[in-house]
Design brief:
This protein has 634 residues and is an alpha+beta fold. It contains 19 helices and 21 strands. Helix 1 runs parallel beside helix 9. It is globular, with a radius of gyration of 26 Å. The N terminus is likely disordered.
Amino acid sequence: MPSPETSPQSFDVVVIGGGHAGIEAAHAAAKLGCRTAMVTMDLKAIGRMSCNPAIGGVAKGQLVRDIDALGGLMGLVADRAGIQFRMLNLSKGPAVWGPRAQMDMDEYAAIMQDILGRLPNLTLIAGELTNFRREPDGMFTLVLGGAGAGGTLGARALVITSGTFLGAVMHTGLSAQTGGRVGEPAAVELSETLKSMGLKTRRLKTGTPARLAADSLDYAAVEVQHGDEEPFPFSFRTEGPLLNRATCWITRTSSETHEILKTGFDRSPMFTGLITGIGPRYCPSIEDKIARFADRDSHQLFLEPEGLGSGEGEAGGRIYVNGFSSSLPAEVQDAALRTMPGLQNCRVVRYGYAVEYDAVDALQLHPTFECREPEMAGLYFAGQVNGTSGYEEAAAQGLVAGINAALKLQGREPFVLARAESYIGVLADDLVNLEIDEPYRMFTSRAEYRLHLRQDNAEERLLERGHALGMVDDSVLAKYRARAARFASLRARLAETKLTPAALNPFLVSQGGQPVVESVMALPLLRRPEITLDLLLGFLAIDLGDWTRPERVSFEAAEKYAGFLERQQREIDRTLKLSALRIPADFDYAEAKGLSGEALQKLTVRRPLTVGDAQRIAGVTPADISTLIYYVKR
């Protein structure tokens, strides 16, 4: 798609920031054919994992699988840089399983930088966006400063993924300094620019724990946590087995730890009022845990390697103390850490600190993450700048924003995922419709259709859509369709295999199941809780050959919960029908006679893209929706 400008300093899409949101946004826009630039303060910081050295988890792993099925990068790179892989929640049903992997942080960033450096249509620019304006013709003029060469850039669409850097201040004890993370400056001027444009912001807070020298721990005194024997990959595109190359460990705080930490409460920026931003409720600092859960005398902590040899310890390695996020004075952190098993002689490489920053109120955005105000059309925000926490939530937003920036410039329909289609749809819908006063984190409980939105069926739900967009290559689609054909063949074979009571009952009884009184087909047997796919195929002497473990899990889950899924699918179809009904951008709500006064006011301000979006706005009643559907269809 040609640009209207031929100047080397004019681009179709400019992405501000090189974190997880910026990476996915830039990759998507460039892959869809837009002349794209990524502007970031430090090119060597692209892909840097600024907090924990892991990707995925419960609900977060589902987000990564969704990103991958749509052609994004996070899952593919996580498989390559992963050093330990675990599927969480295996003791529960597949709907809440979550893949998680420890990363070699340096390797993860290096791979991302290599991919982006070789990506057609993408230019990487070192610099800081300090100011910008939208011209009468819709183009953006961007003013750059910072460590780069400065100057201006032109952009037809602008995606801001500034993470925790807007007006950021770092806190350790009563000491505070500007910066988005250690060694990196804050984006102070950009924050002021956004406020001057009338954008509503909120003050939020995040934090990070201490890092320890790996060679200073007593590993005989801590609990070992191994990876899975047969790991699940994040990416459908990953070929070959994954290798667990590292070990994690578990330790615990004690009452002694807590008493030491309490000695620093009078110098805590949280408790003394130095920090006014709201932190994540579900990922509190260690001092917040002790204050809120005073009845508990111990908290579990995870000791996680940040890599396989790079880092700042004498032995070339650092340990991330997951669960010990803190902004207490350094000497208090140091003394408290030494009270825990295995850490008595630890050397602290970096103390924990808190970051307070400005975030954009996402109620001002469409679910495409474009600003709702017509005079700001073409301006998108994605990632922690929208008030979320976590790499995975950021990457998901970046992918959506980058895709939609490209589609808008190409005159194509916006790409919006419904809540019934993916965790990304849940995330986007929540962010732009709910009053959220703390950093948003994804949980399986947020998804009402989580049985349908499993990590094992992301390709089934999203890969064809990713291919239609242009994000998924033909070879990947062919691989998926070959898998679907294998699934269909086995399903048909099991559906046609009839088993008599005489042949089947000994097998059922041996597995603790109830015998049958008449012949049954083999396929419905998978709905019995005691019957697994491997058990059934072993009984029937069916060899699946080179089917992978993820393929077996996906097939079995779909059949085991088929009855529930069929009922849920009927509800999903109704939801998608509403979500698919687009509202014209110039729709005059005042002409829709019958809308309540509150609905008219809120719909006019929010300008929802679809009837499904309108349905989620507080104060818009079912009667309002019926009226809206009538007039939209007219």
